[in-house]
Protein 1
Amino acid sequence: MVTSPFDLTGKVAIITGGNGGIGLGMARGLAKAGAAIVIAGRSDAKSKAAVAEIEKLGAKALAIVVDVTDKAAVEKMVATTETKFGRLDILINNAGINIRNPVQTLALDDWRSVIDTNLTSAFLCAQAAYPAMKKQGRGKIINTGSMMSIFATAYAPAYAASKGGIVQLTKALAASWATDNIQANAILPGWIDTDMTRKAREQVDALHDSVLARTPAKRWGHIDDLAGTAVFLSSSASDFVTGTAIPVDGGYSVQG
Ligand code: NDP
């Protein structure tokens, strides 16, 4: 039988922030490609609802309540995954928040909260996942960046710093673990319709229309738009791809 290079049958994936938005879109894609899915988020109710949705697609799934800024909780998340499924092949660091305030008024606690949730969490999760991946002789790490990995705005300095940092962390992971056959890549979503960007549209004047005007595809992204790239970067099809940051943005980043 010929196996597709995108087949994820028998693979186990942790997706932080997988209980909604972009994380759920990627989780659905990986589940359809055959992976068992661990949905990791703070809200038990949201995570259990996501698990029910994934199971309807025919995949195995498990909800784990975790705050990704908590090192001990992240280590427990990986241990629970190995106990339940016996392995860990794919880690998607996707949990994220944004607190919109310009530099001159952004509180230090808010700065730290965004950096801890969006950037330090990826370091903690990758560090916790490494022993399992090294033992298996292969692994895939995907970090969720942003258009603010490339550009910045005045209203989200901590978010831009965290998303710039995630691209550099991705390169560091790629360089560190290439000889362990662990590939690390980032996905840079354009403007995707989620809870996070619904809030942004309430807080930032004319955001909806300015995104449409700037995006060559002339639409906001849907969470399922992220699925294909996530499957590619999770599968053997990307075994010689590491340290990259792939925009999935309807062309937003190429049009001035
Ligand atoms: P959502 O608000 O829908 O999702 C955020 C997810 O992160 C939720 O599942 C939430 O779960 C989880 N989360 C937040 N904080 C923590 C924490 N401390 N511990 C564990 N989980 C946490 O937003 P999006 O889907 O839009 O965002 C997902 C990722 O995509 C983020 O990294 C975001 O920065 C990025 N992104 C989004 C873009 C967009 O246009 N939407 C564009 C570019 C990047 P829970 O509430 O259960 O904790």
Protein 2
Amino acid sequence: MTSGRIQMEFPSGVAVDFGGTKLSAARVTAGKIGPVMKVQTDGGGDAAHQMEAICDMLDQLELRPEERVGVALTGRVSNDGVWHAVNTDTLSGVHSVPVRALLSARLDRDVKVDNDATAAAVGEYIAGAGRGVVSFGFITVSTGVGGGIILDGKPLLSVNGLAGHVGFSTSRIATELCGSGRQSTIESIAGGRSIAALAAKAGYSGYDAKAVFSAHLDGQEWATKLITQSAQAIAELCANLTTILELERIAIAGSIGLASGYLELVQRALADEPELYRPEVVSAQLGQNSAFVGILAQTN
Ligand code: ADP
Ligand code: BMX
């Protein structure tokens, strides 16, 4: 299911991006991002805790009357605005949270809610790497591996909010059970939580993905193996998406996706695929801000 065509205008309002590692918020004025507030996500918190964390951020931004508010969330967001974790290792206390209704009542306005990667795909389509194409893919390599798809200028949505969850498709090189419940997913080998878990399994406990990436950049072979296989799985995902949707361009984002040399590792792995299955793969241009723009955008 796709919604209406994305309005190609730079939106304004207050946006929240709730990711598996960090919760951030900013005021957006005609597409220009103001100072970004960030706090660490508490993935073990229950629904009330997560709602309070979101509202604390919004309170600090001192909302103006009538100001648009958008909240992008890691997890599945159904078309009636109910929030569910799919990977319950990332968010263990979020099950069927009526987040749109709760926030709309609390803020006395219709708050827009959506999946974080879908929102980021819209933001990149309006103001970033998606400009100039009408079929566009967005992959965030972050705590997990998220995705957003734009087809003929419209975001791919679904009744239960699962569409676009490309990280839960499977990889030929993955071996682990994913927190989504599926075996050998892209996320289970490429996402940040998984890189840390695989490092621990290899005897390097206490390393988060950021530390693994630093060890990779320092030339430690064990770390390079983990980062390289993450990139290989993302390349496989790009080829799979091309086979299914033949996207004109795919943008890679997320702290891992945008880390030094990661895109080149993806492109190198993609070079092993026949040309027919090799899309244009680029870095997201809005950095960590894509979802801020996308969650405030409107469709006609
Ligand atoms: P979120 O998933 O909350 O959107 P990020 O996009 O920052 O947040 O992704 C978080 C993941 O990225 C974590 O696994 C973290 O260890 C890792 N990470 C954070 N900064 C870096 C970095 N500079 N290089 C590589 N990995 C990073
Ligand atoms: C997971 C899934 C997606 C999300 C993606 C990236 C959960 C909690 N999240 O695949 O909904 O878009 O991670 O999210 O099931 P992030 O936390 O890495 O930003």
Protein 3
Amino acid sequence: MEISRCSTLRGISASPGVVIGKIFVLHDELHVPRYSIHTEQVDAEWQRFRQAAEHVKQKLVEISEQLRGGMDSIGVDIFQVHTLMLEDPMWIERIRHEIEQKQFNAEAAVVNVGEEFIKVFGSSDDRYFTEKVADVRDVIHHLIYHLTGHERTHLADLDQDTIIVAHDLTPSDTAAMRREQIIGFATDTGSRTSHTAILARSIGIPAVVGLGNITEMVQTGDPIILDGNRGRVVLCPSEEELLRYHEEQVKFLEFERSLDVFRDQSAVTLDGHQVRLAANIEFPDEVPSVSRYGAQEIGLYRTEYFYIGREDLPTEDELFEDYRYVAQSLDPHHVTIRTLDLGGDKFAAHLGIPSSVNSLMGLRAIRLCLKYPEVLSTQLRAILRASAYGNLRLMFPMISGVEELREALRIYKEAQSSLHEKGIAFDPDMEVGAMIELPAAAVTADILARELDFFSIGTNDLIQYSLGVDRANEEIASLFQPFHPAVMRFIRYTVEAAHDNGIWVGLCGEMAGDPVFTLILLGMGLDELSMSPASVPEIKRVIRSISLKEAQAITHEAMQLATAWEIESHMWEEALKRFPELLNWDYRV
Ligand code: PEP
Ligand code: MG
């Protein structure tokens, strides 16, 4: 069936807001010309490659300079790695061989050698080599774009009001994405809890993901309307649509402004029950947004970003500086630092861990850290050292049971002893918690609670693992049912187990920042909700408008219901009674 290029596409709302701009298609398919050359053409072909390599290197240096100006160290690291690759003598020698001996054209030589390297690196057991795969791919792309005369506009060179359209986003894309010109993005793949979506919310730009094949329907420069509230994009919009969405944009901005008053108020119910509202952050430069939106603390500092886009592992000192900055900035308020949670959709593709071990059920998060304990102990020492400068908490991701937890705690104790022996200060009473994001952890929460100070429920993963539905796969997005009775029961049981054992329990999955879930989470008795900073004012408004008693009664009714659909309808009905405008902004998990 021919789909009109001027249609409205429905996807999944990943980050709210309405924007109108021009498309930039990232990663259009590359055509690689392949042909043999004559002996007399060899020199010219070799020069063509040398010039391309020089040009790309120059371009990458310029980009990293621009990013350095913007203090974006993650981006700078990625581009420096790429520049180094272009100078690697072994790689250059192999390309010369392909051109001189085998008499291939420069594009074919680059791809042949690139593929060889990818194969060798990808199958290596050594992490240093497997990490290089994504970099090799990026460099091949840059070279082919230049050699074929299709200069690849880089994200750092974009015009104002650009909306990125891509199949999915790579780490170097996301690192460069945090620039003012980019006002939104739309992708073929992904779901609301995929990492790309979480990133969009953390940067605070509207996004729609899971659009299927938008990349095949648009071209760079086309006008587009992106409606992150309803998960829609309008391609080649009419005058009338532009006008209508412009009004929507104004209305949404007014709605956001109306929430300003809640920023400085506390999250307390009508009958005086206080809930702690915290922020999830991914980058240290998000720290100012925590207080700007009125969050009381950081409930989840995802630490993965420090480990991507680089060839080596971060040193203890580098990590320490980063954690100390965050700890000091928030002091006396708490910051919960989660240990490394790599794997699944969190950039393991970039790390080059073979896909067989990189599945959602594979070597991820705490499992990866326990297999490479030195990675974990380095991070733990850095966290401990930073704990002397503020109020830190420590949290382990993806804990499946007590044995795993004890192993992580053993490494933690060792990290404490090694600092103690060297006379380095740390907070010996730092609270230690675990994320409850596997069904196994939820049903053994009573046992885990005896060995911990707190829980934080990671519903993004808890939903995917309890329902067996990949959180990042748009094709089964309708099966990703946060209101499924199984999920609701896991949450309720975890809260009860925590409280029965005298520890507090928070929730830091995406549902914490979605107003449709607030009543049921309140009714279940969660002590803390941690979310994207920008969601805090609205969740405060919901909490301040109801009594705990009423929320408990609504939750009690919901927990008697048999299906996800029934629970969801019940909660929508109750929410809409109080906040009819929710219907206008029906972005949600
Ligand atoms: C979760 O799984 O709910 C969570 C907060 O962690 P992440 O999204 O980083 O996996
Ligand atoms: Mg998780």
Protein 4
Amino acid sequence: MILPGATLGVVGGGQLGRMFTMEAQRLGFRVVVLDPDRDAPAAQIADAHVARPWSDPTALSAFASQCAAITTEFENVPAEALRALAAHVPVRPSAAAVAPTQDRLDEKALFASLDIAVVPWAPIRSAADLAGAWHAISGPAILKTARMGYDGKGQASVATSEELFAAYEHLGPAPCILERRVTFEREISIMVARGEDGSVVTWPVAENVHVNGILHTTVVPAQVPAALSAAARETAQRIVTALDYVGVMGVECFVVDGALLVNEVAPRPHNSGHWTLDAAVTSQFEQQVRTLTGLPLGNTAPMCAAAMVNLLGDLWAEGEPQWDRALAVTGVRLHLYGKAEPRPGRKMGHLVALAPAADTALMLALKAWQALQE
Ligand code: AMP
């Protein structure tokens, strides 16, 4: 067990690393961040910062030498970098547990091995697979690169085989998957944490709305039948257990004809779990600290209903948003990540509204978000 007072390392200095750092520091740990950006959101508040890329072996050992244990905040940290760090100190989740989630082809194979239902899909390992994949899916589809996609990046909607060939030229040529574009009733996600001793906890199922492939709102608890929540919980538990995963993971799902189809997993805390900082007994970031240090897993119970709205750089089109207007809405909490440059589509912060019921929380969160745009 690693106790408060020790120094923890986080690979990546974005907003997830920043919220991890805040929670770790609240618990009395020191935090070192590895990120080449001198002004990275987590680096601004960390106790120490190694401003070097993870591709630099000297930086990795300099970073590891300061840490009692290391975690990540970004799913695409190369498994080799995690392995190199693990030669010095415990790394959680491990390279082996993260690797299958970094490639959509491997991830689909994992789901198949666990009998987890997914949308119809076909592999495209090279251009030679394009015609066969189109034949297999034959209809509106989404081409996704196997590696390095996030927030709708590395994806293209296609409706004809010509569009598929053109999109592959544009995105690739690299291994991809072609997925049928499904009409879902709703999107849900479940946050799950697994400790070193194999114990697993989940937070209540969240309901998500994406706009242009980027998360827009999350509401908790999701308005779904108890059996669906139980299926989501059980699925998440099976995934982390099969991977021998130690840490926090987000499992994103579609609900189609009342049934659960898993879309993808994120091997780290997830945007749809940000509400836990405000409304759960233990936040996803505190849980990341607990799983990393071997402390007991915390209670995941919600203290009330919550709704989150992401604040993208687009909000800054006319200058700094008028924060006072959002903060005037009752029950609203504001989180800003300290990013200097508000680019369109860039996650700059989020709002969370707390209320006794989910629909009220969503109404308040959207009201605050709209007030920022007036
Ligand atoms: P992903 O990067 O796979 O999480 O995709 C981002 C978002 O695009 C998802 O959360 C959905 O809103 C949408 N999306 C992705 N795949 C599909 C699909 N096969 N059918 C319909 N919508 C999808």
